Protein 1
Amino acid sequence: MVKQKKMAVAVAIATLAVAVPLIVVIACGPDFGPDVFVPAPHPQNPDVFAKGHLGVLQPSYWRADKVVAYRYLVGGKLSDAERAAYAPATEATKPYNPTTWQQQYDAQQAALPVNQWRAARAAVLKVDLKGSPEISQDRSLGTKTNDGFELDPVLNCPNDAFLTAKATLESRTKQWGQGSPALAEWLRGQDAVFSNCSASGQIPSPLPANAVPLLRMDREYQIAAAKFYATDYDGAISGFEAVANDAASPWHPWGQYLAARAEVRKAAKAASPAQYGDMAAFDKPLLEQAKTRLEKIAANPGDPRIKHAAEAELSFIQVRLDPKQRLNNVATAIAGPAPDPDFVQHLADLRFLADHGVQSDADLMLWMDALPAPSSDTSEKTGPKIDSLAEWRTRQTTPWLVAALMSAKPNGAANAELLRAAAKIPASSPAYTSVSYQRVRLMIAAGNTAEARKLATSVIDGLKGDDTTATRNAMLGLRIQTATSFPEFLDDTPRSVLNWQSQAAYASNAMKSSPFTFDVDTARAFNRQLPLSLWVEAAKAKELPERLRGAVAMAGWLRAQGLNDEATVKALAPLLPSALSQAVGDSMGFPATLALLRNPGLRPYLEQGAQRSFAPGSLEEFRDNWWCEKWGSGPRAFDQQYNPLTLPPLPLVFLTAPQRKAAADEQAKLNSLSPGVVWVGHRALDYVKAHPDEKDAPEALALIVRATHYGCYTGDEKATPTIEQKTLSKEAFTLLHRRYPKTSWAAKTPYYY
């Protein structure tokens, strides 16, 4: 049956996902990304966001998220239906379902309209559903091109077709009887209709004039529908017009609408193919014909279902004939403050048109384009550059105040004006958290750190619930810039990871343990700005969770080894994890070196997100072992799209001049050292050469070879670390087999790398 509000060629428009999961976790390497503290593409919890708890708005949010934010910023809210569409229930929010995965899957499959039809058909025919013909809803439609012929898969038989067929089958079964010849003939006709869904199939045979009248009228409809799915659009148009002219037919009210649908399909088939990324082309004169037919239907105060279907099809045609006006219409409707009954379709149209570069002067669209683009733009920006400050001064609305604040540069000439306006936003406003975040940012830039810290603390203290983690992380990232003492700095250091994505997280099974770790700002502050003396303090500080104190102790202990700082080694050794502490004691020599070979997760710096040292003894199969980065700088920071980040150092006003000098001197000395495997390997090899009777010498040599194989890889075979590792591997292997050939370690090491 043919009964669908949108033509199949445009199914992508009608079914665009409104809400996207917060973030996609890559479960296999080596394509790991950084762990997420403040999500860039989407809010932390879309369901909470959809209720108006906007948190700190990010300029990189996708359009659907910005639409929701705008609705609340103008004083509206989402209806229950709109919230469900934007943030559909996830497995985490659904009521507990005790059924097995297979049972859930089977239930989902059974609920599909195509399978509802197949089940109803099988029940009437009293056959096993497995014997019912499979039906594919998609069909590859061919288009001639300059280079030959293109096949484009489209949804040919939409869900409504099967639901209508099911409802009609149930009605005809009651009327004619389950075993009646009329019902059997109706089913043969319907099977022929659906045989055209994925390929050219059968066209139902016409019935004689003396056939059951209702069956004959159904057959005329089935023939037109079959031609529609078979892409014989002229035949379908004639067939549906004939149905429309038969006042006795139950399908009569839908005839003209379906004829218009066939005209739209014909317009798509007749047009020249669009280039990749462009909107699909349509024959505009044919669309105008369909438009004229549909306008007559929409003007008729008849069946509201048909009227609504015609209006929906007219909206689709407007997308093609007047895209700017369509974008203006949907943006105005969806912006609010009133709910939008066509929220799903309007949002889909908005995204589709904006993605294809259509411009709009609707306030919502201008506002989205005014939000500042992040360094790695995921905001789908396509519009002209908008002066958000000028727009706010003209409009004096909350959305434009938020945009102006987000766009304001440090020490901008209008910042005082913006801050005065921002201070008037009440705590009850959905804009309050975002406005407060921007206020703190601008106050810090202006040197008003005391007031900035006070406001940040007020916002943080007011956060309640488990779905405020991203906001808390964002505010801590600002408040730490106002720290006037080392304890205050440490207070704001632990951040809760929202999504573990890094390789280190998987190596350490971090998702099942404490979410607290270091964000990029604090990790880089430790690595580049803090002297080792403060690492020792941090390793003992109650402001850090125990696990983070351990991470600081391990990295600081290794830095002290590289600096030959015996006093710091002795101070940090008791603070190491017990097994490691017992193995190394306060050694500056071979026991420490052997421990480094045995624990490929040890590194002389802290990392962005999960620490590799959370699982120091594990050997990571993707070579996330030891380190290639500079000792005193640590790894490069990346955003959630895995683009390099450039961040200014934290102010750390509490550091004294001697502490700053000590940190700089230590960093310079550490950065002069060789990368991890080379440094550790030569240190072990030199010791073994000088101490041939060392009982652990065979193990050390074998572990050197292992380290050269599984150690971090630069990706450049000509790079110095790689060349040095190869030389080191061969030398350790040769010494192992020459000096200790009968040991188990030699037997375990048949190759060098």
Protein 2
Amino acid sequence: MKLIQASRMAALMLCLGGVAHAADLQTVEDPDSLGFSARRLARMTSWFEAQTKKGDPSGFVVAVARGGKLAYLQPIGLADHDKAIPMRTDSIFRIGSMSKQITSVATMMLVDEGKLDLDAPVAQYLPELRDKQVVKTDPATGDAILLELEPAKRAMTIRDLLRNTSGLVYPMADYADPGFGNTAIHLLYGARAPFRRDKPIASFVASLGALPLLHQPGEVWEYAIGYDVLGRVIEVVSGQTFDKFLQSRLFAPLRMVDTGFYVPEDKLARLVAVPGAQPAPLSDGDVTKPPTFFSGGGGIVSTAPDLLRFCQMLLNDGELDGARILKPETVRLMMTNSLPPDMHVAGHEAGPAFGTGWGLGFAIRTDPNFSLIPGAVGSFNWQGSWGTFFSVDPAQKLILLMMMQRPQYRHNAFYFDAIRRLPYAALKVPEVAAPLASQPSNAALLTDYVGRYDFGGSASSLDRQIFVADGNGWTGLKSVVVETDGLKVIKPVDGGPAARAGVLAGDLITAIDDASIRGQTLEAALRRIPGPVNAKIKLKIARETQSDPVVVAFAREAVPSHSVALRIRITDGKLVVEATGAWSVLDFDKGEPTPVAALSKDEFRVEGGDHTRIKFVRDAAGKVSGAVLNPGPWEQHGALFQ
């Protein structure tokens, strides 16, 4: 039996290896042949359909590919709610900031050809950005000092534009993402360099010439307009307008037939409507007419089939169907974190606090303790402000893609959580042959196992934080920044364990569990915060209103909004298991108690379905303290949380 199972897994890995071809992404394959449970993969359809039944006007297209083959492609809901037009697999979406990855690939194509120097000053190609001035900062607070400028210590480079360390910022306007900065400099950019579809890139870049940088180049990561500047760099270097370069050099070779900067008249019937009140016009707002400003940061429209081809090209190390787009070593460089550990991060979802670095145009999973990106370290992703998301896991040869269209920045994370978790939860776990033991006849013997078990923030062993193995303890510190003497609390989570224990915004944490964190990097200090659910943590705090240090101690808790939990009880003399947290897990669904049969003392198995095994863990005193799902290489650990 073990030999047969090993052979099946070897065959599956052979299937997942090698170079994928575009034809493999056109027809949905049998999910089981690609290592998925078809039943569990179907939960995605149910989940997204449930959102439309609850009245969400957004329709969806959801896709999953593995090993270059299509495991799932499903249109759900309506493309136009008001006109009752159904969603279709080739519906066209505004992809917002997922344009950045396309622009990054285009940039690196020219680097590969020797026409663009990655470390050359941007001014070498765009003289209007020469001799930039930088806003001075107060050395004591780090705050910008308005109206005081100093010369840049060095010129911004092409690499800086790709990794968001140029010192440029996003223009602030009334539609801006609250994750972006809102200083006077951001407002100045909004007034002097607004996005307009009728304004050429050259004119837009020229307007940046008179504006100061907010940060010294190379010193701060801040999500910025560098990709729009790169569009102009590509025009200058290639001699083509940015849209024509992308069409001839990238979209046509990859046969991305519906991707561009606007939707032609003969395809308008496939354009997904944005429900509700519309934001002020942006670079990617009205896509029904050809623009003059080709926004490399947010102006592209595309479809799920086109983006699957783009992602598969990257998984294939830069090639698809004989079209070589990038050198393999270039793809590896782009997908390697380029930010040093001490890089200051200004806002958004990158940096040690998110377990996420930044390559050359892509967010990279660097630390599974904190990362929101699923899969192996080295997985890469990004999202668009209109509600599109992709993630690529090179270790599993897995592409996840979700397309929807919503007014900008409206609660998209709720849906991103689903596409992050549900496909990983559908991956099959290799079965282990084991005979069933006789069910304990005395129900009292089963009472040891009754309770709620918390498995942290993930529904899969492949999509988990390290501390899930210890119960994924959560302290409720929403935002902190590193200072010389420790971690300054910007905001604790309202009602979270830290807030309830008395931690306040403005507190400076100087020690964790009696060990000083003075002088530590943000990453090193953050590693000290997680721990097992129910485990105590003690913080020593310096507070401006008190002369003596404040010491608070409290127990870590399970993450409430992302928790994966099982409720185990006895029904009709049998042990039954039901998912009670945010997500179903393996054979266990919400609202459907599933009986398990005994394999041995402390180990049980689902008799049907995917034969999920659950083994209970006891502490030194012999008391049940946790559970392990599918013991072995794919195991998931949970803590008993009464």
Protein 3
Amino acid sequence: MIYFIIFYLFIGTFGETFDRAIQIAECIVNCNTDSCQNDCYKNIYPQREIKKIDLNANFNATLHCRDVNFLSILHNPGLFVIEQSAANRIWNNAQVINGKISLFSNLYPGSNYRYRTHRVTGDGISQPEISSWFTTMKLDSEPEQVKEIFVNNTLPERMNSKYLQAEVIFKPAEDLSCFYEVLSWTRDGGLSIGNINATKSFKFYLHGLDYNQNNTLIISAKNEGFSLSSKNLTYSFITPTCLDVHQNLTICPPNAVDGLNVSQIYYYNEKCNFTISWDKPDLIPDNYTIQIFTFDKSDEPQLIVVPGELTEVIVSINKTGIRYMISIIAESHGGTSPPVSIFRTFDRMKNNSISVFKEVAIVSPIIILIITLIATILLYLRHRKNKEIQRQNNYCSNLKETINLNPLYKKYLKPTSMTDNKIDNDSLLTNDNFEIRPVQLQIKDILGSGISGVVRLGLLKIDQHRSIKVAVKMLKDCSSSEEIRNFHQEILIMKSAGIHPNIVSLIGCCTSNIRPMLVVEYCSRGDLQSFLRDKWEKILSESCKNKTHDKSSNNACQNPNYFSLSKGENATSNQLYDVQQGLLDKNEELTVENLLSFAQQVANGMEYLSLNRIVHRDLAARNVLVCDELTVKISDFGLSRDVYRENVYKKEGSGKLPLKWMAIEALTHQIYTTQSDVWSFGILLWEIVTLGCNPYPEIPTNMLLHFLKSGYRMPKPSNCSQELYDIMIACWNSSPRNRPTFTELKNSLDKLMPTITDKHEYININDLIQVPNKREILE
């Protein structure tokens, strides 16, 4: 049959049209009998004899790339008829190829294939050529890391020259994977995720880039059959300036002026004349604007505009003996250059050389003093660090002795009265406004603990007659240097966060002792996850008593443990305030307005954090605390996320990850941004709607990424309106830049509140009892 194909390719290509020949070849490939083959061409071409010539096919096949069920073969260009053979050595699946890349799909994983080819030319049909064996990837094979990335060409976009496109070429690993995922990060555009099909070339284009912009690429190879990924390879580059590309000042702004200088200074009476000069640029701008003003702002600024052909100007000033700043910008039709400035002091009593000598004489001792001061500080910090390490080693080796020496530790072991202490005389107070004297704190019961940290209830003495309840975070005994460093980093983050009504605010800290402490405001009603689950259990209990529930609720009533928290639940919820759980027994009704208000308040707090460039990285109901009057506050936005929880996180090296709350880019590349916090907010909104149900209850954690990348998202809860579910779906957009901002989320929730009526509820609490039978609180 192969010769029939070659024959009619030959006729079609050099007799009438190539397209007609391809149609006949495809018809013959699908035939199993000679009569069928004759029907493909008997009414089109007369019978012709195939001309065979003694010519090599010169196919020269090499493997371009592969996957578990796919091969891409690179070969010399030309018109070929190719047959495929597997281990059974039967030649089949004949196809016509015109080009230099041949693609073969629907193959078996981890299998060998080879190819027999005939070249069709104007002189006839070549002798057959058999290629080497090529092997597909195994199903569970993990791709290897990309070897190298570089940018080849950066050119203006064809449709819009205001932006650039960059040709990115990468060198694959030895396994030659065909499919890749690319994350691109730009200074202004944020994060973008894309998939690259490299079956024809190992290159792609980045579009919409700004001039003179820093860009970062992260590339990983993908196993399409088993959704496995290689390690990331990161590459950064800076796009050229507008002038580097266009060399045209009608399109681009000029470069910054070079060589700005002051010379030829002359004094007369109370005035001073001098010359301002600069280097001549390669491209002449339209004009220069020079600004001269006194450093002490004692005189009005002086503006001078000169033509672009000039490179110097003579200036006169009325005051001498004071410091001036001289700035210059170049201007053209394409824009304005960045300003360049110099500082000068003009003294009418001395010539320029004496003035320069005076400045040097003044500045030199200052520089020497600064260098000496820096060196002294560095030596002191080094000495203090060594002393701190020695103190901690002594502490861990002899805890009893340290307790006897440090009265604060006695206070941890047994709360004491503070009436005998005099706060004003405490020598541990530092100049830090957040620093709290240890004698101001009375440490009480443990509220919660984790791997490296513990949280205690505390009383903070405000004055001699008044104290307030606080939550005190501290590290456990003999903490590692990394844990201590992370704890201090959390203190710095909370200091930078400031005060907001929906953020657990920092009250103060104690860093002058061996064991640092973080003092935050106390939220009496516990975490939102436990609060919502408590309300759910009450709704379920009332439903069972009234006998008004459906079949699913019957199951729950017959089995009181059906929805209860199983053993180990404390590990998954933030049980910070176990001693205060009695407060949750208040007989108060939970309304739709309450639930939407929780979401509003969290969005409001996250908007504040995002505007302050703080990324939470673990936004979830368990990390939102509930105060009196149902005010909610975001907590745990520092680096000590492991203080309260154990098995919610999956171990990754020395870190822990809340997998079911994480965005796709955080799961694949450990990238955390405000955009990934938005994804987590969508999960938290789902938790609020379902009153604390665990996300993705029927999906194993190890399969979560596969489901998300395939487009799966959690379905709409039965008690949730479409408007509210649309907000969740927007948060779960696979492209980070297409997710809403927290400001937009807050505004969307604000619009829902006034429209709540008896006929239009966005969350139907009465329908919660009809949540699917497998309402799994725990995995």
